[in-house]
Amino acid sequence: MKLTAHAQNDRLDRLVAIIDHVGIGEVAIEAPNLQNPGTIAKVTTTGVILIVDESSDRLVTGYLGTFQQVVKIYRIGGQDRLPQWMVKRLRENKKNYSFLFNL
User: What's the whole-model pTM score?
Assistant: First the structure.
């Protein structure tokens, strides 16, 4: 995936840390990013949230999702509940990789 200048210049350290410790995984669900029109929020199977520019398909940023952030994206994507495996993954991320939330 190609990166925007923001991802490449300002978020590369965080993205590399996520790749090294958690991995990106596969896209589990995506929804319009209501906080930033023109972008799409994608939640991956590892609990990572990727924000992608809709027109260029370039990665704007990526970060480890909190429970509340992931629930919001699932709801916007038309799902009432998180799958149990995602709840488990988010708990594991919070327990094992909390330092990634601060990058």
Answer: 0.94
Let me know how many helices (H) and strands (E) the chain has, helices first: 4, 4
Return d(Cα 81, Cα 73) in angstroms, integer: 11
DSSP 8-class letter at 66:
P
Residue closest to 22 by CA, chosen among 52, 61, 49, 56: 49
Which of 5, 21, 29, 9 is CA-nearest to residue 100? 21
Local structure of 11: helix, strand or coil:
coil
Domain span at residue 13 reads 5-102
Helix (H, G, I), strand (E, B) or coil at 49: strand
Dig out the tokens for 87 from the structure: 């709840």
pLDDT tens-digit profile of 77-91? 999 999 999 999 999
Total domains present in the chain: 1
- Tokens standing for 67? 């429970």
Residue that has been written with the tokens 């999702």 in this structure = 65
DSSP β-bridge partners for residue 51: 41, 61
